[in-house]
């Protein structure tokens, strides 16, 4: 049985059916559970998870001086409701990766009194599984004795705070390929390079695993694994698979920049060719590294969205961007990605929702969230159902079609049900 869902960028557009022969569709792409997930900027996480007890910054202070403390007793129920909506559709709630640029500058201070400020208490009861707290990569890590001691002291905090039911894994550094670009807040010098990163990564992750075995002995070995390499560029082998401690091969991607010349809604975001190019480039690098045979980890987008620099007003917060998000998620699923974490932060233009009221933005659900809901609805319950998805090639950059299959022992075997999801993007 075929079911058709038609979405158009303009209600005035003429909707003519696209006929696709099922025999021409071949796919083994099975999206992972909680496929539609999120990445939240570390500095914004208390807003999304629960009202912060402390959120202070002296005038004009750098990111390293900002103090944040989440409040586990006052969870953000608005965030929880939106995640629950997706959980009802997908069969399991989204995973939450906490990171972003502010992850690279985060400092941790061990509390000595009840009111001592700290950046190391991110858990929330509001949205299980809030399950991927990231390990901040201090600017001084592996460079000074103080930096290394901070790593040793903070490594077990996440597993202690969240426990086995809500903890997924660590991420050691956010987009380290940008660490040596220079500038006032560059985490590393311009002479720092890939070999330095490999050495730091292997030493640091080994120390974290050792500390977690010591302080959280009840965690199974799979909890001692990492998201990596968390690059926003195309990479070669970083020897990250040598220790077999990677649970997800995580890459970052943005279609373009908010301030890049020539960026438009129609020809940048609502352009299927741009989407397929970025997704396929990351996929090819992943296949190249996995072909070494040294390990196997599922491919995910650990951080992604429309336009970097927090999006562009009128583009990233439009319903055209919601259609882009639908296309991006479904194409990623068809290409073999196991999960997609849509990045967001407080007051970001591409956010799926604003978690609190601020002077800039009112609390509420934003257009991209409806694209997230549409993608989840297209895939359905990934816990209960055997789902595969195929991208159907069309001639125009502004026309996209996907076939989603449910049930049966294989794509065309058993009692499989074929559903067609067609996106018509108005030229």
Automatic annotation (TrEMBL):
Residues 109-129 have a biased composition (Low complexity). The keyword Repressor does not apply. Keywords: Signal. Residues 108-138 are annotated as: Disordered. Residues 1-15 form the signal peptide. This is Beta-glucuronidase C-terminal domain-containing protein. It comes from Cordyceps confragosa (Lecanicillium lecanii). The lineage of its organism: Eukaryota, Fungi, Dikarya, Ascomycota, Pezizomycotina.
């Amino acid at each position: 049985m075929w079911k058709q869902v038609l979405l158009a960028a303009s209600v005035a557009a003429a909707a003519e059916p696209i006929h696709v022969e099922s025999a021409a569709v071949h796919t083994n792409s099975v999206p992972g559970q909680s496929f539609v997930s999120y990445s939240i900027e570390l500095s914004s996480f208390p807003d999304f998870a629960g009202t912060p007890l402390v959120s202070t910054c002296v005038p004009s202070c750098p990111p390293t001086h900002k103090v944040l403390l989440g409040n586990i007793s006052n969870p953000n129920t608005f965030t929880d409701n939106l995640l629950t909506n997706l959980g009802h559709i997908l069969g399991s709630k989204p995973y939450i990766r906490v990171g972003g640029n502010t992850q690279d500058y985060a400092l941790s201070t061990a509390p000595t009194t009840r009111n001592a400020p700290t950046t190391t208490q991110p858990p929330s009861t509001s949205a299980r599984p809030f399950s991927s707290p990231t390990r901040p990569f201090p600017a001084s890590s592996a460079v000074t004795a103080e930096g290394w001691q901070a790593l040793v002291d903070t490594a077990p905090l996440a597993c202690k705070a969240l426990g086995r039911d809500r903890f997924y894994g660590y991420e050691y550094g956010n987009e380290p390929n940008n660490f040596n670009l220079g500038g006032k807040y560059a985490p590393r010098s311009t002479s720092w390079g890939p070999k330095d990163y490999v050495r730091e990564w292997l030493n640091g992750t080994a120390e974290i695993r050792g500390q977690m075995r010591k302080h959280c002995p009840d965690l199974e070995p799979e909890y001692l694994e990492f998201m990596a390499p968390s690059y926003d560029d195309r990479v070669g082998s970083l020897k990250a698979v040598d220790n077999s401690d990677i649970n997800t091969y995580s890459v970052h991607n943005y279609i373009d920049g908010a301030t890049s010349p020539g960026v438009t809604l129609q020809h940048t975001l609502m352009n299927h060719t741009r989407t397929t190019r970025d997704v396929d480039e990351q996929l090819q690098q992943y296949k190249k590294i996995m072909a070494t045979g040294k390990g196997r980890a599922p491919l995910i987008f650990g951080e992604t969205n429309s336009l970097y620099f927090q999006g562009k007003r009128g583009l990233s917060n439009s319903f055209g961007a919601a259609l882009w998000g639908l296309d991006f998620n479904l194409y990623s699923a068809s290409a073999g990605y196991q999960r997609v974490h849509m990045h967001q932060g407080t007051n970001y233009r591409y956010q799926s929702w604003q978690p609190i009221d601020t002077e800039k933005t009112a609390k509420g659900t934003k257009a991209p969230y409806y694209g997230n809901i549409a993608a989840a609805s297209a895939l359905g319950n990934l816990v209960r159902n055997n789902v595969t998805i195929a991208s159907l090639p069309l001639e125009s950059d502004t026309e996209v079609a996907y076939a989603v299959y449910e049930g049966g022992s294989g794509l065309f075997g058993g009692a499989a049900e074929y559903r067609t999801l067609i996106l018509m993007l108005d030229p």
